[in-house]
């Protein structure tokens, strides 16, 4: 094992020592001020290279709030999403108390109804004064609201519960504008397209691990083998976004997508039922987006139900609003722009 | 016993990544005092660059966000231990994040990237007025990197973003080939010389 301490400064900085070697090296650093200075200088250089090389990414707006909450710098938050439900129940409870009070009243002859019992059917109601009819009507309204709230919560529990090993993803097909599933004459099944995309990914991973050449006996380095050209896409282009709202994790599987023209890239957009404008998600890497491939994406927030997706082609770094001119694929098929 | 070669790092010019304006140092002092606004200020200052670096290290947006979150947590908790005479503020943050990334790699015992898929590149926004590096430092480093051989430059960038990092368990260790180390040695020597010439 090469344990030249000064040589190991770089290996330690770049995480290339295993745990045992790192422990030995750290002990050497503690005892050698010169070695420590060398480490600090290389840390400075590595930080400068990283800051210069890496493309800055805009963090999500909620990240700072989450950080502050984890450090105890913010109060509340976890119960905020329930405020609407709690406010509704509080209002219903107050209304029920008012009704009970009204029934008790000064006369006190009618026993108060059980709060959780079903209200009586209107046709069988005895003759009541206007106030009692009104209270019955309000009770029925409260009961309806309570059932709606329970249904709403149940829907969320079913749809957004995160279960280990399971997901409830949204799966959608994207086609060129104006095309439908039948008019596109699709021969490639979803399974085949996903299989093609997986094969491309596995091939890329294998090439990546074999990328670093070994020196031969003379110390010469073998040239990198040229990559085989990607097969030309056949059939109509299509894409299938698969999105899990509970985890905010999605995969875009593309098939038969022609490479973007020079200077342009493909951009992915999402539409929701509530929003009027498409929201920009990101761009596909310039080097790929051809043939069958897959890409990960996230919307930046969970519990969003996408109503549709759009794939446009525009200049890199300058995505324009989706229009008929720049939209390549749209999902669900047949959606008007 | 091998003859030791003097480290090239002693010839590295000083001044890279310095906090010339003192803004970051002041915010760290605020963090020591428990000021949440100081944390928000440091977050706004460094988060875009750290997130970009974390994304290069982890290859996954979610993991990168988690790494950056844990980095700022650790910075907050260790703000009192920061010594401005030892390293500049941004270097301290970067080193903290790198330590966490290496710990994460060691705990996950992985030798290659988990997901072979290329991610959809999220909308990248260059932070307005980001002050992680002075403009002059950026120019110096870029110029020095541009003068490197293509393979050496690629090797150096990949090393900075921990692509050659080794996991803890020996049975999962992926020993970096000697060629990678040779590339790195030459790249480091070249960039130190290039930076020194630029300084002169």
Explain how this protein is built:
- The complex is a heterodimer of chains A (337) and B (200).
- Chain A has 337 residues and is an alpha+beta fold.
- Chain A has three domains: 5-53, no CATH class; 80-160; 171-183 and 190-201 and 231-331, Immunoglobulin-like (Sandwich), CATH 2.60.40.
- In chain A, 37% of the residues lie in helices and 16% in strands.
- The model of chain B is unreliable at 1-13, 110-118, 124-129 and 168-175 (pLDDT under 50).
Sum this structure up briefly.
The complex is a heterodimer of chains A (about 325) and B (about 200). By secondary structure, chain A is an alpha+beta fold.
Listing every helix as H and every strand as E from the N terminus to the C terminus, the arrangement of chain B reads: HHHHEEHHH
Would you state the CATH class of the largest domain in chain A?
Answer: Mainly Beta
Number of helices of chain B: 7
CATH architecture of the largest domain in chain A: Sandwich
Major sheet attributes of chain B: none
Provide the residue-averaged pLDDT of chain A: 74
Major sheet of chain A, described briefly?
4 strands, antiparallel
- Write down the overall geometry of chain B: globular
**Which class do the helix and strand fractions of chain B yield?**
mainly alpha
Indicate the proportion of strand residues of chain A. 15-25%
Q: What is the second-level CATH architecture of the largest domain in chain B?
A: Orthogonal Bundle
Mean pLDDT score of chain B, rounded?
A: 77
**Measured distance between first and last alpha carbons of chain B:** 37 Å
Taking all Cα atoms into account, the compactness measure Rg of chain A is 31 Å
Strand residue content of chain B = under 5%
